[in-house]
Structure formats: structure tokens, C-alpha cells
Amino acid sequence: MVRNDPAKRAVYVKTAKTVLKWCFYVVVAVFFFFPFYYMLTRSVMSVKQSAARPIVLIPTDLTLDMWRAVFSGEDAYSDHAVPYVKFLFNTLKIVVFNIIAVPLSASFVAFGFAKCKFAGKNIIFAVMLSTILLPATIVQVPLYVLFGDLHILNTYWPLMIPNVFGGGAMRIFLIRQFMMGIPKELDEAAEIDGAGYFRRYLQITLPNCTAVLIFIIVEVFVANWGDYYGPMIYMSIAEENKFTLAYAVFLRFQKSVIPRPGDEGIRAAVGTLMALPPLILFFCFQRNMVEGVVMSGIKG
Amino acid sequence: MKISGKTVNKLKRNIAGYTFMLPLIIGVSVFSFWPIISSLIYSFHNYDGFMTYEFVGFKNYVNLFRNDVDGLGKVLSNTLIYAAVAVVLNLSLSYLLALSVSKQGRGVYAVRVLFYIPCVIPGVVMAAMWADMLSENGAFNSILTSLGLPAFTFLEAPETSMITLFITNLWGLGSGMILWLAAFNNIPRTMYEAADIDGAKGFTKFVKITIPMTTPTIFYNLITGVIGALQYNGTLMLAPLSGRGYENSVYFMSVKIYRDAFLRMKFGYASAAAWILFAIIGVLVIIMFRTSKWVFYGEE
Question: The pTM is what?
Fold first, then answer.
């Protein structure tokens, strides 16, 4: 009977579609959320419970031992103390420098592209864009040699100096696109009032770019906060107390290190600790990150 | 008078423009172009970063192809296979993901935010968690066995390593999604309205409007995706045997270059390997640009 009733059939098809759609969403959500859930629960489980098989999904034997170990640096499961909090502050030094340096230098260059007229601008712009295509892999050995010649290996400078000089083509490009959208009249009015280029950059254009600058700041924070590769190359023989958090976590938990009992919990606790700052920042500024206003400049 | 005044103005403008370009010009020269040239020069030398520096002609290149300790052929084919599959998989799935959340609305917005979260979590943290969950005795195998399913080897066997990487990397689809959403935003609503008047169905609108109008972003994502995937080094944290995987099953060029340069201290040899990778990237980028007739930049 159902078969002969098109209206009813349509209802069934629609229900089936909705059910399928939600099944799909649930599978995707589990795939995306299980790792977080796993990390969070492991960080508050006793060693015994997190080592239990089959695995315990809902923690019952709650403990803050792992968190205590992370904050005190007495990582009982490592062969020596690991001062995670110290590492966290080391990372912060680099991150704070970069989240100031990158937006400033990138917007400075972007202003030149967006608001100044000068000979050869298009060529410089094209050359800048072409650096997006250059593989990072190829520059790392010469940069290591360069920083060695400058005697700044095993310091934080290699992780900061390049950011003073524009902070990357993509970022300059994004800010430039955003600046092009700012009404010309603002700039022209200031010019008539006798404001020079530098004042117009600082007082007219920059305050109108907060949306894209926040995007850049969050993005630079995330990139530098989690960077283990830079420190691994440029700080490989630094004293241990200079390590950054990401590099320390990499050394302690990379796959080739033989796991000890209790590792799971420490790894989860320090992982949660490391995930929190970028997450908080992201949630504060999610509109800037996700709405795509900033990205709408990209047209190939 | 008039002419000289104009000239002075023009000169002033040029000087202002170049002042704004200064950081970029220094940055690109010192941190992009100089390293690329140095790297090419190193590739013809036997160079350990300290004392030894002697010209050896094409010996590094010959050795790479003839008697490389890691087997360059295996590493190259791994890299190419990984890049081909990862780019297609990530681009198409993130496109579909973006489509499914492209409508306006509060629920949809929340879903976007949730999908983007993995992109702000540090890679080291997530790699440590994945490595933990994917291990022989880890969470996933525990769940599989308690469901009565056979255990899976994931990264613990050469046959399943590559596919495990593809699946775990889907976790970062959110970053691609944002770019697609921005591209969808740029499509004028009037196009869809006109299509509605003509009685076009959803699928027709997708094929005739959405896809053509987003080709510039597809092209951009394809190029940056290929460049990024060919340099993928996430296995450093995730895969066993210091990022090579069992039987070198997931040993990629970037990891090899890192190991040659910074663990074996063979700077010249690593530079030659980097140039081989660079050449491959260059050829692919040129091919993509040459065959980019399908990209639609709008009516000029």
C-alpha cells in the first residue's frame, strides 16, 4: 500500500535520508572527538586503569597524579625530572615575540602593497607570491649554516629573527587583500590633513585591520606554540632547560621512545595542557577564524 | 616648476614605497633566495657543516640514485604515492565537508567550529595521542577486539602503515574546509537566483555554478596541497623507527633529508636530495600551471 501512495513514500524516503545523514554525522563526530575524549580521560585516570585492557572508556578511578607530575616536573615515569612548566614559559617567550613581530612586519609590508604607488611594485609582489611555492625543506640546511655563522644556534633567535622580515608571503597577502577593502576616502582625508605615509599606516589603516590582524595573531600563536621542528633543528644541542614545550613533548613521547607504564597518563596530561592555550584563544576569536571574511581575499 | 614638483612627489612616493618593502626585500633575499642558491652549491660539495667542504661534482646525485643507504627509489615512490592520494582525498573530502556546512545557521556554524578545532591542537600532541591509540595494544585494537573484530596492525606493519596515515590525516580536514567556505561566499547569490528562475535543480546548480566559480580556489589548494604533501614529515612524530615505519613503508623525502642533514651531518648530500625534491615539485607546479585552462577567473 505504501508503494502506491507517493506522499507516504516520500515521507519514508525523507525519514531514511535523515536517519542516514545523522548516522554519518555521528560516525564523523566520533572520529573527530574520540582522540580528545581519550586524552582528557586518560589524564585523570590512575595508571592501573589506563593500562587496563579492554580499555576503560569512562574513568572511575580518578586521580590528579598525572597533572601533579606535570606541574611539579617530577615525571616519576621518566628517568629524570622533566620541567614542563619551565618549558612552557620558554615557548611563551618565543610565541610572544612572534605574535607581536609578525602582525607588525606583515602589515607594514602589506600597507606598501595596498596603499603606495611605486615603480616595480607588481614585480616585487609577484616575487613575494612565488615564495609560497618554495619548499621549506630546501632552505633548512643553508639556514642552519647561516645561523651557525651568526653564532645564534641553540638560542631562540633562529625561531624569531625571520619573523621580523615580513612574516611570510601568505600573511602579507591576506593583510593586503583586507587593506584593499578599506575605503580610500579615509586615507585620502588623512593625506589632505597632511599625514605622511607612516602616520596613515599606523593611525588610519592599522586600526581598521583588527579582524585580519587577530586572525594572523591566532594563527602565528598556534604555529609557534606547537612547533617542535624548528627547535629540533636549531636547538638540538642546547641545554635541556632551554627546550620548548613542543620539542620536549616530542623527545619524550615520539613513537621510537620505548614506552613505560604510566606514560599514557603523563602524555595525556601534558597534551591537554598544551592543547588548552590554543583552544582558548580559538574560542575567543572563533568568528575571525571560521567566518571566512579574512580568507575571502584568496582567489587564486 | 610644475614638472619638477611632480618629479619630487613621485620620488617621495617611490621612497615611501620602498621603505615599506624593505623588510620583505631583506627577508626574501636572506631567508629564501640566498638559502636556495647556497643549497644548490652545497649539493655539489662534500660538506659536513664544519670542517670538510670539498667540491665533488655530481657525486652526491649519483650516489643518491645508485647506492643510497635508505634506498632513494623507495623513499621517492612513498612520497609520490602519499602526495597523490593525500591531495585527492583531502581536497575532495574537505570540499564535501564544506558543502555540507555551507548553509547559514547556528547549528551549522557550531559544526564548522568543531571541525576546525583539530587544526589548532599542536601536531605533536595529537601525534602522541594517535600513536598511543593506534599501537598494537592500544585503544583502537582494544575496541576492535571487544567488538569481536580482528585486531588491525595500523602503523605496526608495512602493509597497513600508509593507509593508516591517510585516515589519521583526515583529522585535519577543517583547515581546507575554511578555504572552501570562503570561496562559496564569493559566489554572487544572484547566480543561484537566476538558476532558480530557470528551474535548475540542486545538482545542476552545483555542477554549473558552484564548481566553476570555485575553480580558482581548487587550483590554489591543489598547488599548495601538492607542495605540502610532497614535504609531509608528520611521520617523524607518528611512525615507528624514528619516522620511517617498518621496512621504510612510510619513509618520506622530508624525513630522509632531515636525517641525512641533521643526524648524519651530510649537508651536501641532504642538499642534493632536497634539490631532487625541489625539481619534482617544480615540474609538477609547471605542469599544473600549463594545464590550468579549466580555472575560471570570471569575465575580464
Answer: 0.90
